[in-house]
């Protein structure tokens, strides 16, 4: 029997939030779009806490990425509204703000420096004493020495976001093939779609590789086109906060975070009572085991910030894989192989960068050009010494 052969303008390989937003935006622009993924809406978003932390996760040397992060954060209110209108429902976008706190003198010195850096870049961030931090969040440990209040760093619920994108993409006409891409089809030096694990052959004018941490492992592509993306394991635990009754304050009203013994720990309280505590950052290949050590470290560090967490029911432990890239920034745009584009490598910022990634990829797929703000994120930046072909050149 001949395998079925469907034909599309765009085939997106990977149905995580980045693949879904690409498919949604492409379908909205009238492109016949398909997504290949055995479990669309799964992936790293099932684990992610959903912080939109452009300012509090700022790192030295990542100012270019900051611009993209801030641009995407600004789009969230209208993006959430548009998704709701498109039948995606509520994605749990919450303008809750974030408090980054220091537990000792070294942390405080580090946060002070971060504050100076943030202010030098024109970012909104306010220094608070330990007492002021506790006035905002009474559950904080008495030992908190000071902190940064960033009201512009919000949150969204990544599981709801994935569900909403799936519904919106379907409503816009995207077709879902619930099977993984076995290999990209390359014919006469051009990507022309993919063959799926179930034997389906999908022909496409443009193929987008958006397979998260697996993007570098897809068969059929020449070595130099494969993105340098690696899995970075993150373990997360979920707790349940008590419902506030009467005049009792919420357990936590905003995201609280710190760096404890060199590791980031954050507590993200949702309106539905869920408290997400994350996340480890481990270079362990494809391992997604939840370990006693990982959970212990998260709870130990979170307990130093908010001692009352030990009273809360533990509802879930999970590990996922961030798609890490060599410079922690995404790869967005054409590759050296005609017909193949990338939307991957979002590392710690996949949820935050979802709105802007959708817009960038839609522009690329409909006009052949990426917007100005996406040019620094061209996949070509990881091929030093290679002549950049006209195809992949930033336009
Ligand atoms: N952005 C949070 C994390 O990747 O853990």
Automatic annotation (TrEMBL):
<dbReference type="InterPro" id="IPR012727">
    <property type="entry name" value="Gly_oxidase_ThiO"/>
</dbReference>
<keyword id="KW-1133">Transmembrane helix</keyword>
<dbReference type="GO" id="GO:0009229">
    <property type="term" value="P:thiamine diphosphate biosynthetic process"/>
</dbReference>
<dbReference type="GO" id="GO:0009228">
    <property type="term" value="P:thiamine biosynthetic process"/>
</dbReference>
<keyword id="KW-0560">Oxidoreductase</keyword>
<dbReference type="GO" id="GO:0050660">
    <property type="term" value="F:flavin adenine dinucleotide binding"/>
</dbReference>
<dbReference type="InterPro" id="IPR006076">
    <property type="entry name" value="FAD-dep_OxRdtase"/>
</dbReference>
<keyword id="KW-0812">Transmembrane</keyword>
<feature type="region of interest" description="Disordered">
    <location>
        <begin position="371"/>
        <end position="395"/>
    </location>
</feature>
<dbReference type="GO" id="GO:0043799">
    <property type="term" value="F:glycine oxidase activity"/>
</dbReference>
<feature type="domain" description="FAD dependent oxidoreductase">
    <location>
        <begin position="9"/>
        <end position="364"/>
    </location>
</feature>
<dbReference type="InterPro" id="IPR036188">
    <property type="entry name" value="FAD/NAD-bd_sf"/>
</dbReference>
<keyword id="KW-0472">Membrane</keyword>
<dbReference type="GO" id="GO:0005737">
    <property type="term" value="C:cytoplasm"/>
</dbReference>
<dbReference type="Pfam" id="PF01266">
    <property type="entry name" value="DAO"/>
</dbReference>
<feature type="transmembrane region" description="Helical">
    <location>
        <begin position="7"/>
        <end position="27"/>
    </location>
</feature>
<keyword id="KW-0784">Thiamine biosynthesis</keyword>
<protein>
    <recommendedName>
        <fullName>glycine oxidase</fullName>
        <ecNumber>1.4.3.19</ecNumber>
    </recommendedName>
</protein>
<comment type="pathway">
    <text>Cofactor biosynthesis; thiamine diphosphate biosynthesis.</text>
</comment>
